[in-house]
Design a protein that fits this description.
Elements: E1 2-7, E2 13-16, H1 18-23, E3 31-37, E4 42-47, H2 51-64, H3 73-76, H4 79-88, E5 91-97, E6 100-101, E7 108-113, E8 119-127
Antiparallel strand pairs: 1-8, 2-7, 3-5, 3-8, 4-7, 5-6
Length: 128
């Protein structure tokens, strides 16, 4: 397993981490890789990393879940972040071949920040 950190700058932000995931793969790896974020207010997704679409994704998450009015807000005022991350999920499993991600042409691995700015820990675990 390899771990790396990603620093985010905005409350809701989507960052392409494809290169970092691929760099963590052994040169001869074949099978699958699971990319997992160790936080309850961030997620991992596979989608296109086009800049306008990334903005649309962030706007979608912000518009889908209200910023306030949740019971958990009485504890630490970030229930919306937990709910947005719940929609995304904490991990993706991706096929790999010859040490490279075996994805479609436009697919990228994305870190979805829902409670930034923060430093996030991402695990990359290869399985046969």
């Amino acid at each position: 397993m390899t771990t790396f950190t990603v620093s985010t700058d905005d409350r809701t932000e989507i960052i392409d981490i494809t290169d970092r995931v691929e760099a963590a793969l052994p040169d001869d790896a074949t099978g699958t890789v699971t990319v997992f974020v160790r936080h309850t207010t961030a997620g991992i997704a596979v989608n296109e990393a086009e800049s306008r679409l990334l903005g649309d994704m962030a706007a979608f998450l912000d518009g889908t879940v209200a910023d306030s009015g949740w019971d958990h807000d009485r504890l630490d005022d970030n229930a919306d972040s937990h709910l947005r991350a719940l929609l995304v999920g904490p991990s993706e499993t991706i096929p790999i071949a010859d040490g490279r991600l075996d994805t479609g042409t436009w697919q990228s691995v994305l870190l979805v920040e829902c409670d930034g700015p923060r430093s996030r820990t991402v695990d990359v675990r290869v399985s046969d």
